[in-house]
Amino acid sequence: MTDATAVRVDTPGSPATALLLAEAARAVDAPDLVLAVSRNGVRTVHTGGSGEPGPVPRELLGHELGSASKPYAGLLLARLVAQGRVRYEDRAADLLAPGFPVHPAVRRITLRHLLTHTSGLPGLPADFYPQAVPRWSTDPYGGYPADRVVRAFLRARPRHRPGTRWHYSNFAVSVLGHTLAAATGTPWEVLLHQQVLAPLRLDATRVRPGPEGTEAVGHRRDGTPVPALDTGGFTAAGAVRATPLDLLTFLEAHLEARPGGPDPRDPTLAAALTEVSRPLLRRGLRHAHTHTLTWFHHPSPYGRVLFHGGATLGQQAFLGFRPDTGLAVAATATRRVHRADTFVATAYGLLTETP
User: Fold this and answer.
1) Can you tell me the distance from the alpha carbon of 68 to that of 73, in angstroms, rounded to the nearest whole number?
2) Mean pLDDT over all residues of the chain?
3) 81, 139 in Cβ contact below 8 A?
4) Is the dihedral of CA 82, 84, 89, 94 positive or negative?
């Protein structure tokens, strides 16, 4: 790795963390890498990579989060529920297309089912692949707009009865986004900004690329750059872009006894942050895996951890926090994931193996 620098945003405890991050960074090969840690509000950020740094520091560039966008969708739903604007048990089809004839199983799918991957829907609509495969490495989602996602949902035939099985689904979370937009009469992008980004002061987080020079550039496995991701109609499942510093702010808002958290006079935001951190369901062999509304939930030697990863055509992201110890980890890399990739393991190790 070259251009490895540690940015000490605050001083107490940072030198030891800076050394830890520098050592962890050696395990990851990417043109641009950011490892960011917050310990009870004290931040340490390591930047590096095999590529040449640009004029804007890596920790200030917007990075594609891919599926790590889903915790933002989860917090949005939880806040709307806390405000009484929707309920977890509301049926998506009734909000999207009242009176429209749908399969009985589709009629039973609730907002909670969509967010928790228990709707019975596949990972992506069946008719997504014919248009996506010819451009799988360049723009698989851009040709599948929002109205097509909604139509695919209304004509779907779920594989399983809603609420009975866990199956990860970008399709389902995307439908959730369109459903919340319909229920509130507000476009998803505006709704997310009003309910999540603005209240948490996430000024460098958005769902569209920013001005030229403000966004990290993704790369294929061979190091060639790829264009910015167009998520088409799958915005809620993977369109969020944020700087690593904003990612820390988002995570810090979830931590107990956090400095600079959301205004305590806003009870719906506080309730939503608590709700999305609460263990909710189990899956897998012997139900060994636990999930909240939107976070994967694991034990660790230092307490429970909540996390989510994401990948796009040329970038990766990892978000995680330990609610009981005040530790948060945000990591980004600008190289497409591959089988021998060490990025997720490295970031997960910082979250679970660090005292």
Assistant:
1) 10
2) 92
3) no
4) negative
Q: Long-range contact list for 261-265, CB < 8 A, 24+ apart? A: 262/199, 262/200, 263/199
Q: Give the CA count within 13 Å in the CB-facing half-sphere of 193.
A: 12
What is the strand order of the sheet 63-64 is part of? Answer: 63-64, 241-242, 205-206
Residue 353: Cβ within 10 Å count: 12
Is the pTM higher than 0.85? The answer reads yes
Going by pLDDT thresholds of 50, 70 and 90, the confidence category of residue 7 is very low
Q: What is the pLDDT of residue 260?
A: 55
Residue 10 has pLDDT above 60, yes or no: no
Please give the structure tokens belonging to residue 231.
């998520």
Q: What angle, rounded to 10 degrees, do the helices at 146-154 and 170-184 form?
A: 100
Q: What is the dihedral of CA 262, 266, 269, 275, to 10 degrees?
A: 110
Whole-number Å distance between alpha carbons of 47 and 333: 10
Encode pLDDT of 157-214 as tens digits: 998 999 999 999 999 999 999 999 999 999 999 999 999 999 999 999 999 999 989 9
DSSP string, 179-219: HHHHHHTS-HHHHHIIIIITTTT-TTEESS--STTSBPPPB
Q: What does the block give as tokens for 44?
A: 């340490």
- Contact by Cβ (8 Å): 120, 165: yes
First-to-last alpha carbon distance for the chain, in angstroms, is 25
The conformation of residue 67, written as its DSSP 8-state character, comes to G
Side-by-side strand order, sheet with 2-8: 2-8, 42-49, 33-39, 327-333, 316-322, 305-311, 296-298, 289-291, 281-283
Instruction: Give per-residue pLDDT as tens, 282-303.
Output: 887 777 789 999 999 999 999 9
Q: Please state, in angstroms and rounded to a whole number, the distance separating the CA atoms of residues 337 and 319.
A: 16
**Measured between alpha carbons, how far is 111 from 80 in angstroms, rounded to an integer?**
11
Q: Which two structure tokens, joined as six digits, stand for 259?
A: 């400095």
Give yes or no for a contact between 306 and 294, defined as CB atoms under 8 angstroms apart. no
